[in-house]
Predict the 3D structure of the following.
Amino acid sequence: MNSESEHESNDDLQRLRNAIGQVVQVQDRACRIMEVLEDEACVVVECLGMDKTIQANQFGDATRRVAQTRTIPLYDREHRPNPDIELLFEALQEK
């Protein structure tokens, strides 16, 4: 990764960090930005208004129902921007 693309990546991560808690549309679903995973260059979103999924504890026992989450990478393997992230940034600009 060159210096310019690394700078863009840091800018994208910071924009997402600033948006934690905001609700945006991702693939026609309302999602809340929950967390930014810097090491993996991903964002975690909670899908709102969807059926809850069963979450297991550390022993594999089903213990509770929680909102579905998705982890969305910022870039593909060739370091091209993920189209879902570009749409997410567009949605953030509209706010």
Strands lie at 23-26, 29-37, 42-47, 53-56, 62-66, 69-73. DSSP finds two helices and six strands in the chain. Residues 23 and 30 are 6 Å apart (CA to CA).
